[in-house]
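Reply to thread "Modeling small-molecule complexes from scratch"

Following up on the discussion above, here's a worked example others can learn from. I took a protein sequence and the SMILES for flavin-adenine dinucleotide and predicted the complex. Inputs first:
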Amino acid sequence: MIAIIGSGLAGLTAARHLAFAGHLACVFDKGRGPGGRLATRRGGDVMFDHGAARLTAKRPAFAAALKLAVGAGTAARWPVQSDSFVGVPEMKAPFVDLPPVVRLHQSVRIMSVTEDGGWHLTDEGGARHGPFRAVICTVPPAQAADLVPAQAARLHAVRMAPQWAAMLAWDGGAPVQGDLLHPGGVIETVQVMASKPGRPAAPCAVVLHATPDWTCAHLDLTRPEAAQRLLAEAQGALGLDLPPPDSAHGHRWLYARCEVPLGAPFLAVAPTFLLGGDWALGRDAEHAYESGLAMANAVIEALPEPAPLG
Ligand SMILES: Cc1cc2nc3c(=O)[nH]c(=O)nc-3n(C[C@H](O)[C@H](O)[C@H](O)COP(=O)(O)OP(=O)(O)OC[C@H]3O[C@@H](n4cnc5c(N)ncnc54)[C@H](O)[C@@H]3O)c2cc1C
């Protein structure tokens, strides 16, 4: 059995790949559902992709994964953004359908990893999980440094930038049109959800992402304040005079995008204890996919004989 910490794209990719090689994988995540930063928030009829806006593939492995997902109906091209795909009906959809030998344990925060006749994980409630033959850890670098203090210097050299997201909805009409806009100023992107395949056309739902610089300067805003400030900034940048939204929520991503990556697909604490995620290679979902794949391959190489099933 292999333990995977984190059910974001890197962890899900590693789990799937290990399962196809005959390994049992047990995935632990502190969040309520899988997907990590491939996040979509739902409220009634409205949906917001407040994490990753789109999926792009520059290299063959992720391109093949997206092509398979398009064939399966869990991803689609984003019209107009011809190089971009989105998960359907939500961003994580292409990656969450896992083979049955993968066990997902959500709402379990892992606090420590120890080696004692195999790898053991201890969660927030003090429960001990294991023994595992290998551990793949895909949490952000600052949190990985808490789990592996001996690697703190290398992990703290990796830089992640924060990002505020505003989720706005208008019940009637469509005050904002378009696809993925880059208005400039402190607004990095404006996403009109109805332009994405599989999202409801109404109510009109819009996600604004602030630039990392603005976010750093406004980390302490409350969520409603951040949503209102970003709306005002977006109106200014786009030259719009919008009616007040019927709902406005903010979400602060403390570790949104990697600015200075590790520079390798993963960091090996031991041949069977690997740390990775997007931050190992770069800032995009494709980097998370590639890191997850590389860690699974390294474990398959270190443990050529999968444990017998049952
Ligand atoms: C606002 C925003 C916009 C983005 N836009 C784009 C975009 O347009 N295009 C693009 O390609 N990429 C984009 N990205 C980046 C993309 O979302 C990430 O690269 C990718 O999702 C990272 O996957 P991951 O598995 O490496 O990490 P994550 O998705 O962060 O997964 C890590 C998981 O670890 C869990 N975890 C953390 N600590 C613990 C613990 N102690 N115990 C258990 N579980 C733990 C977390 O809950 C999380 O689920 C964006 C990200 C954000 C936030």
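What I'd highlight from this example: The domain at 38-95+160-260 is CATH 3.90.660.10 (Polyamine Oxidase; Chain A, domain 2). The radius of gyration is 20 Å. Questions welcome below.
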